[in-house]
Write a structure and sequence with these properties.
The chain is of the alpha+beta class and about 625 residues long. About 40% of the residues lie in helices and about 15% in strands.
Length: about 625
């Protein structure tokens, strides 16, 4: 072993035994690094500390005394960061386990120092080499560290590591102030003292942002529209919107009869008795008698509606619209980046930071939360840009057309809480920052269109329904709702409590028949493409065989015969409707038997004589509406 190696081992041994020597050793290393002739010696010494000091260091609180050495190791890109990241991860876990009422300030100080070392690593190392180990350390810190400020800073660093490519990340970190806990070394004092630019907003520059910043739907609507219908408030009071209409009401609390009698006077008691007598003698509604079938239907409906939240008293059901945000580099550079700031290759592409998208709509969609995008790179020009210019990116996308395009788009999710299932338009405003601190603010010209198909949801399943029981539950709900929509049904005057215990709703169904001259094959393909998640049953042997072979629609109820289909529900509902068909009297028993035989033969051979089968489709429309489809081909 050379004399230099002996000296290095001696320094490591003395550092482990005497933590007070750490500032002296750090000053010695800094002097070596500042000298061009002895730079290699300083790097060799740091490599020795990395190989021999880190494995012997314990994860106790006294490990913090070695943080200045760790910071110098992190700042040297010739030393792999794997060992340092593993030691820091174990240390953070130890701090979390030892945290108590008396260690709050110490935990904050130690966590801040660890994040300072992580920041140094991100500045001096390539992101691809750090990503796995550093992302685990930051993820654990932002999830479990006891101090809120440290968790927030770790979350910010994690988002930056994931979203921002290497050179732009280093440039952004250079402009920021150093985290408290580690004093900057002399050779990097000017490195951290760069003043951040003051935020500035120029309204003139923001006028034409709609020409190069675009927010678009990922999945276009089937039905195109460019208008929005909004109704004025129809309610008497200003607290409740008019679109609630009265189909949902609050259940009145039960009257406390005992308190009324005790607190009221004798005249009040007499008036109360008289009013009760009048109600008994003159009932406002006729007495209703239910059979077992109606009682079963009501039980199914009460169970179903009890799972639907009342949006007036609790968070309602939300729908999500997937969009993508992008912006063009060339027009952006002409407005926001001077020519002197332009680099070569991918570094010439502009970027926007801390983007906030705000949404508003005249349609009844509730309060729409804003969406935050930490970083977005501009789209490259169509000409003069090649994949070979991506050498400066630390983490490069796969050289594939779709992957390349996705790297310049940010996924945006718009969350709506509809009060009524109606189409509409969502206006979008943007506020973001450029690399040199300028603020871009304005409204995007193209609104996001919300269609009726965006409202399509699967019916809510009660928590006690097993997975293999879901198809049967959907079938019960479908037939119960179908029966309740019948004009002659006894369920028309029933009210059903919603989830939350306060709201109640009633069923007011509407039926319609649409005849479409469409061949069977395109119709089946369209249903499989657009309505597959909402099909709850397929009836009829020919149709069952076709749909099963396709393999798109699964986990539903298959019925080879049509005798127990929803057609029976329609027929049973119309049998009691005297306004629709005249009463036909049978004069002989033979004529009645022929009628029954014809009806049985018609129901058994319905798929062969009338049609090939039918689809039953159940669609839930928030907040509490339903669409029921019975699709058959004559």
């Amino acid at each position: 072993m050379s004399k230099l190696g002996v000296l290095q081992r001696l320094l490591v041994k003395m550092t482990l035994e005497f933590q007070g020597l750490v500032p002296v050793i750090v000053a010695f290393v800094d002097r070596l690094l500042l000298c061009q002739k002895h730079l290699w010696l300083g790097e060799r010494l740091l490599q020795t500390f990395d190989r021999h000091l880190l494995p012997k260091a314990t994860t106790e609180y006294r490990l913090a005394s070695y943080f200045p050495i760790f910071d110098r190791i992190a700042a040297n890109d010739t030393i792999p960061a794997r060992g340092l990241l593993e030691l820091l991860t174990k240390f953070i876990v130890s701090v979390v386990e030892k945290h108590g009422p008396d260690t709050g300030l110490k935990s904050w100080s130690l966590g801040s120092k660890v994040l300072g070392i992580c920041r140094t690593l991100m500045i001096h190392h390539h992101g691809s080499r750090l990503f796995v180990g550093l992302s685990r350390l930051l993820a654990f810190t932002c999830l479990y560290f006891p101090d809120l400020e440290v968790r927030d800073n770790a979350r910010i660093y994690l988002r930056m590591l994931i979203c921002i490519p290497g050179k732009k990340l280093r440039h952004l970190l250079n402009l920021g102030a150093q985290l408290p806990g580690i004093a900057p070394s002399p050779h990097t004092s000017s490195f951290f003292n760069v003043q951040s630019p003051r935020p500035s907003h120029d309204p003139k520059k923001s006028r034409n942002i709609l020409s190069y910043i675009h927010l678009e739907r990922v999945v276009p609507l089937l039905v195109k529209q460019s208008w929005s219908l909004s109704l004025p408030t129809l309610g008497i009071g200003g607290d409740e919107p008019g679109y609630m209409g009265g189909t949902i009401m609050d259940s009145e609390p039960p009257l406390d009869m005992e308190n009324d009698v005790v607190d009221g006077s004798s005249s009040d008691i007499q008036q109360q008795i008289v009013s009760e007598t009048e109600q008994i003698d003159y009932p406002q509604e006729p007495l209703r008698v239910m059979d077992s079938k109606i009682s079963e239907i009501l039980g199914i409906l009460r169970r179903h509606f009890s799972c639907i939240p009342d949006f007036r008293h609790m968070p309602g059901l939300k729908i999500r619209i997937s969009c993508s945000l992008r912006f063009k580099s060339e027009p952006f550079n002409r407005v926001w980046r001077p020519a002197t700031d332009l680099d070569d290759g991918v570094d010439a592409l502009p970027a926007i930071y801390a983007t906030v998208l705000s949404f508003s709509s005249s349609a009844p969609y509730g309060t729409i939360p804003p969406f935050h995008i930490p970083f977005l790179l501009g789209e490259p020009p169509t000409n003069g840009y090649s994949l070979g210019q991506k050498g400066s990116l630390d983490i490069v996308p796969v050289e594939n057309g779709s992957e390349e395009e996705e790297s310049f788009r940010a996924a945006v999710t718009i969350e709506l809480e509809p009060r009524e299932p109606m189409p509409g338009l969502v206006d979008v405003s943007i506020e973001t920052n450029t690399e040199n601190g300028q603020i871009i603010s304005g409204q995007l010209q193209r609104s996001i269109t919300v269609g009726i198909e965006d409202m399509f949801l699967k019916a809510i399943i009660p928590s006690d329904i097993a997975e293999d029981e879901v198809p049967g539950y959907y079938s019960e709900v479908f037939h119960a709702l179908w029966e309740a929509c019948c004009t002659s049904s006894n369920t028309g005057r029933e009210t059903f409590p919603l989830k939350g215990g306060k709201g109640m709703t009633a069923i007011n169904g509407t039926r319609s028949v649409k005849l479409l001259e469409v061949p069977a094959t395109p119709l089946i393909r369209a249903i499989e493409c657009q309505l597959a998640p909402f099909v709850i049953s397929v009836i009829g042997e020919p149709l069952v065989n076709i749909v099963k072979d396709g393999g798109v629609i699964r986990d539903i109820i298959w019925k080879d015969g049509a005798s127990d289909s929803a057609l029976d529900v329609t027929t049973s509902g119309n049998d009691y409707d005297d306004d629709k068909e005249p009463l036909q009297l049978k004069y002989t028993e033979e004529e009645e038997e022929e009628e029954e035989d014809d009806r049985e033969e018609s129901s058994v051979n319905i798929s062969s004589n009338r049609n090939m089968g039918c689809f039953l489709v159940l669609i839930f429309l928030p907040p509490r509406f339903h669409l029921l489809f019975e699709m058959e081909r004559d």
